[in-house]
Structure formats: C-alpha cells, structure tokens
Amino acid sequence: MRVLIYEKNEKEAEKFESYISNKVRETEFYKCYNVKDALYFTMMTDIDLFVVNACSETEDRYTPKGIEFIEFIRKHEKTKFTPVIVTSKLYDENDSIINELCCNAYILKPMDLQCNEDQIDYCISLAEYIYEKRNYSPGILFLKDGDDIRVVNEKNILWVEKHSHCIVFHGRNEEIKVDRRSTEYVIKKLDKKRFYSVGRSDIINIVRVKQIKGNVVIFDRGEKSLCIGKEAAMKFRAYLQEKKWIS
Predict the structure, then answer these.
(1) Which neighbouring-strand residues pair with 3?
(2) Which of 38, 128, 156, 186 has CA atoms 20 to 30 A from the CA of 202?
(3) Contacts of 176 (CB under 8 A, 6+ apart)
(4) Which residue, 12, 19, 61, is CA-closest to 33?
C-alpha cells in the first residue's frame, strides 16, 4: 500500500507514518513538505491513501495549500475516490471540507491519533481495498446478506457453493450465505483464471488449493477442505497439473 503524507511539520508526518506502519506491514510512504513534491508523486505513482494538512505550507487560513492540493486530486480520474485524511488546527464545525471535497476524515491538531483511531482505521481499510483491487486483480464483491451489504475480496474466497435457492461463499474465517437470484451476476464476474467450476455445485479458487488427496481438496494452511466427486477430482487434478499449480 502506498501512502502520501503532505505535511510541513516533519514530526507530525512521522507520527502518521509510525501509526500506519503498525497497522499495515507492507507500506511505502511518500512524505512531502511542499505542494510541488506532493503533486509530483501523485502523478508518478499510484497512491492508496492521502494524509493532507489543510494549511501545510502556512498558518495563514487564506492560502490553504493543502485544500488546493485536495481540489486538484479530486479533479483527476485516478485519485477521484482515493481516501483522504485531512489534518488542521482550524475547527470545522459543519464538516465542510469533508462534504465539499469528499474527504474521509478530519483530524484536529494537536493530533491525538489514538482518539481518532476509528476514523483512521476506516480510511486505512478503504485504502487496502484499493490496493488489493489494483495489484492482485481479484475484484471487490458486494454481497447482499439480508439487509446488509457485505464487502468481500475475491482472493479471500476458498470456494463458492451453489444451491437451488442460495449461494454460499466460503472463506477461511467466515461463510456468507446470500440469495441466489441477487448473486448470480457476481458469480459471472469471478476471475476465470482463478476460479474453476467442479461439477454443478462448487467453484474453487485454485490460488488457495494446497493439494488434492483422493477426492478431497485441501486448501492452503490445511485449515479447510472440500470433498468432491472422484471423476471431478481427477479432472481438477489434471487441470491444476497442466497449469503447474500442483505436482
């Protein structure tokens, strides 16, 4: 994940870097102390999360360079929806910056990151979804679970089990049962390079397959397995061997 921190105060920038590093291990940081560098890195690389001081180059509220920078990135397609955390000494009673510039969090200075943990963690989770979608190609699936919308990353699915009235998405730590009529279109969107149909009922994520013993498919880490028909197992094993996924 890539994080751009636009902040004149180096100590404040280090606070955010330390906090996010403890939350997400593999993170690249671009710490910028002027608008020129911030614009350069924004255009030259894919940023997943912005942390922007609203008045980063001056305490003069009439020349808010940070605000101008946010206005700029919101005009461009690739950063139009990238999560933005705004920091400022100015109290924004009506959340005007969040509402008008579509920012995701507003943190007052002097910053207490622990007190704003929920806001920051929410922005980090949004950034992680963007990173996963861009780098690993599995899409983000939106599944209707009753009245709730569940967000699931393709790569976290072990297999999909189809029934006449429902579809069950099996993950390592969860199972999500959804109405088949509202989810058939999701099945069609699954990455064909990663998901293989076994018989009429199961669609398996081959990236998560560790080995096949007899007619039992064992998934990575060996925590879960799936029993399939003998003929289906033979065909599936041959397919994985052809793809050099298993020996």
Answers:
(1) 29, 49
(2) 128
(3) 143, 145, 150, 152, 168, 169
(4) 12
